[in-house]
Amino acid sequence: MTKDEVLMMADVLSREKDIDRGIVFEAIEAALATATRKRYREDIEVRVGIDRETGDYAAFRQWEIMEDDAAVESPAQQMTLAAAKISYPDETHEVGGVVEEPLETVATFGRIEAQAAKQVISQKVREAERARVYEEFKDRIGEMVQGVVKRVGNREAIVDLEGVEASLPRSNWIDREILRSGDRIKSILTEVRSEPRGPQLILDRRCPELVIKLFQLEVPEVGQGVIEILGAARDPGSRAKIAVRSQDSRIDPVGACVGIRGARVQSVSNEINLERIDIITWAENPAEFVIKALQPAEVDSILVDEESRSMDVVVEENQLSLAIGRGGQNVRLASDLTGWELNIMTDDAAAEKAEQEAQQASERLMTQLNIDSEVAGVLVEEGFVTPEEVAYVPVQELLDVEGFDEELVEQLRDRARDFLDIREIAELERTRPEPDLQTMEGMDDETAALFASNGIRSMEAVAECATDELVELTGIDAERASELIMTARAPWFAEAQADDTQAETKEA
């Protein structure tokens, strides 16, 4: 191989494969070294160096330098330090280094040598390509990419991303979508896996992020940040909802996303298999946001439960099917978009539920405060549904209730406080360790309290635990958990031994 051929090969491979020219030179050096080894038909180590500018190359045979007392297993590749000093006295040597001897460069190779060189170059170039692809795409997860469908199989479609193949699994297709070779599609890059066969790029057309990215592309105001898309929910291939907000009060976010005669939203819809898209103005108030998200249904009232993060949404009978949607689609998308669990019901159903909840609250107060149903009913009706509210609200609020005097109010507050005190004491008792647990060998007060807070209050309870169970419940290390369990089980072993001794005595 001439120096001109070396330079030409480096330039061509670098351009065609879009890889660094230095990597190509390294591949050629490795190939020439392999071919040279085969030419000499010995198990020798060869290094080839190529001048990146001129294309001139030189070959060197190498020996690894071993300690003088080390066993030389491969004389063709190894020599002792003493031998290196004798054979090459003009050079400086150290254990672990190498000794090099120039070899005659081979201008032409036989068929076997040439084939070996070709294989090495191909392998090195493929490895470089794979590394380049992985480095190019590993930081692009979550981005929208555009490509051309190259081929369609039963399990996936292969998409060409400007020379790089990516996989679009069937499970990530839009419902009822038909893809054909040559189709140009947009997808979200969701995963980049480094595998021996090369990096695997996984695409997705079902995720809500695709709708957001498409609007960023189609609506300049979104791309510029003037309009924000604060969330999206999809039933892929059927319907989607997005929440938008404008940073400029002069710009209507819904109108901007819809476009003139609906051109912008239609362009997005066309890309995702004619999926219907509802554009909703975001609202800071959760109830207001939910009302907008349930459009086109009209909402009568909403009951918000902050603790469970749910809302009871009341609609008229003729709005019930519209609010729920076909197959529950509308309420499901609204729930996904807002992050609240939504319970759609009619006025009659809401009234019935409210009546049941009031009855349950009244019965609880009757038991907790030892009062009759009439007083409990009045309390619930006025909004006092827990002992905490009765005990700690300002006295005047209770005095404002019709029929309540100072004596009754004071009695109710005393009973509420007594109930809360008793409940607190009972709660403390439930989390207090038993004496046998506190005095158990290897136990300290902190660990005993930790065990009790997790329902393990006695030695017997510790003995009944498995090691992994105790670790999971308390967070202590496995070794200590095992030791404490064995200590707690010691009485079991003693009892069993005593039974065995008694049985032996009877037999005797």
The number of E-state strands comes to 15
Biggest β-sheet: count, sense, barrel?
5 strands, antiparallel
Query: Helix count, per DSSP?
Result: 21
- For CATH, the homologous superfamily of the largest domain is named as NusA, N-terminal domain
Enter the CATH topology name of the largest domain. Answer: N Utilization Substance Protein A, Chain:P, domain 4
Under CATH at level 1, the class of the largest domain stands as Alpha Beta
Report the β-strand fraction as a percent range: 15-25%
Q: Structural class, judged by helices and strands?
A: alpha+beta
- Mean pLDDT, nearest integer? 86
- The appropriate CATH architecture of the largest domain is 2-Layer Sandwich
Q: In terms of per-residue confidence, which ranges show pLDDT below 50 for 5 or more consecutive residues?
A: none
- Can you give the helix content as a percent range? 40-55%
